[in-house]
Amino acid sequence: MLKDTHAFAVKGTTVNRASLGLLLSALMLGGLNVSAQAQDSPTQSAQTQDTQVQGAQTTSSSDQQAAAQVLDLLNQYSSDADWDKYFALYRKDGIFIGTDASERWGMAEFENYSRPTKGWRYDLTERHLIQHGDVILFDELLNSPAYGVSRGTGTLIKTDGNWKIAQYHLSFPIPNEMAKQITAEIKAAKKQ
C-alpha cells in the first residue's frame, strides 16, 4: 500500500490529506472560506483556487484570475458563436474532447464542426483551478439550457505570456444511482 505523502499547509500548519478533508469539511459546514496549498515536495507546490459562483469569492493569484478569465470568455464566445475569438483561446495544437466517444478533435476538426453552428451555451456553476508553474488544471460544473448539468475539465498552458487551452473535455456527469441504466442504454445503442 502506498503511503499518502501529500501534505497541505493550512494557515501555517501541515496536515495530511485525510486530516485536511475532515478539517475542510468541518470548516465548510461552519460557513468559513478556506484556501489550501498542496505541497508535492518542499521545492514544488501547487496553488489551488475554488470558485463557487453562488458562494463566497476566493482570492487567487493573478495567473489563476487570468486563466479563469480565459474560461469565462470561452463560454461567452461559444454562446455568441464568435468563433474567431473562441478558437484564439486555444493553443494551435489543442484538443477538444466532446461528449460522444468519437469526439476527440484537433483544432481544425473542431473548427469544421463548430463554425456552421449557432453556438452553445454553458453557464458556470462551480470551478476549481490547480496551478503547477506554467500549467493550470481545471474542472468546472456548468449548466446548459439544452443538456442540464455538464462538466468541463482540461488544461491551460502559459504560452507566450498568455493562458491558452491545451485540452478541454466536456462530459455529462451521471449520478451513480443511474449509471448502470444509462450505460446499458449506451451498450444497447452501439449494438444497433
List the helices and strands and how they pair.
Elements lengths: L6 E4 L2 E4 H13 L7 E5 L2 E9 L9 H19 L2 H6 L1 E8 L6 E3 H8 L8 E10 L2 E10 L3 E12 L2 E10 L4 H16 L1
What does this entry show, briefly?
The protein is of the alpha+beta class and 192 residues long. It has helices at residues 17-29, 62-80, 83-88, 107-114, 176-191; strands at 7-10, 13-16, 37-41, 44-52, 90-97, 104-106, 123-132, 135-144, 148-159, 162-171. A ten-stranded mixed β-sheet has the order 2-1-3-4-7-8-9-10-5-6.
Features:
single chain; 192 residues; alpha+beta; 5 helices; globular; disordered N terminus
Task: Please give a structural write-up.
By secondary structure, the protein is of the alpha+beta class. It is 32% helix and 39% strand. It has a 10-stranded mixed sheet. Strand 8 and strand 9 form a beta hairpin.
